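Backbone description:
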Amino acid sequence: MDIFLTLLSLLDSTVRLATPLLLAALAGFYSERAGVVDIGLEGKMLVAAFAAAATAAIHGSAWLGLGAGILASVILALLHGFACITHKGNQVVSGVALNIVALGLTAVLGNAWFEMGGRTPNLPADARFGEITLPLAEALRGVPLLGPLYFELISGHNLLVYLALAIVPLTWWIAYRTRFGLRLRAVGENPAAVDTAGISVTRLRYQAVLIAGLLCGIAGAYLSTAQGAGFQSNMTAGKGFLALAALILGKWKPVPTLFACLLFAFADALQTRLQGVALPGIGEVPVQLIEALPYLLTVLLLAGFVGKATPPKASGRPYVKDR
């Protein structure tokens, strides 16, 4: 039973750690399916995390923080769209620039506003998204196997975790069962054909990057007002790039991307539990090696265990209409 409870605790951490990866990866799904490469997922998450924590600290409301995080992320998404869609700029360069701007801007504003070395004040409980206990969770807790599974793993997460999980089937339905999804996938494969059909390529791509901004805003707000209790400098710590790797590992499909995010999050949850633990026949593994475990796993999977991952054909290429 102790092993079972330990495993449940590990899986519970996996779900929590996978949430920002999943939201950012789905943001990348919309953007890249429309043909716009989004290296700037990291930067949008970072500014959203700062805006959400700063607003929640000042006004004492997690919901206002969420709104501020989404607004900040959408503004960066619009900047990315303006550079790449309207002015046909290099999408990779634009995304890298957004990441650099976000890293510097959040540190400077955090230090100027709160004078805490780029951090925000610790948020009280009422300024954060708290855990939700699902119906019958307490009553079923004593039931063997199913009770702890329901109480520990399924119940007890905050609203944004359940929202992220719900967005996966919603994204699948939008992408594969709606007219908008069909057009979105078409504009990432053959924008000229979409344009010939009388549909605006520019409008579709802007809609895609706005959805990406919305999802990155939720991901960033989750980091600082749900998983954490405030903002710290560079608190995304490469999660945007891990989300891109999960999207590639999932071959630009929502459900496989979910499992890729869970895999990376499981490696992250595992590394926190392995620190300071002596393994039989090996001894205590260096902390640096354990902390690198999620990233090593990413490199190994993308290097040779994924198979061929083919991005949308028009990905990264600005559309120039023939005259």
User: Anything to note?
Assistant: Residues 2-240 form one domain. The chain has a mean pLDDT of 87.
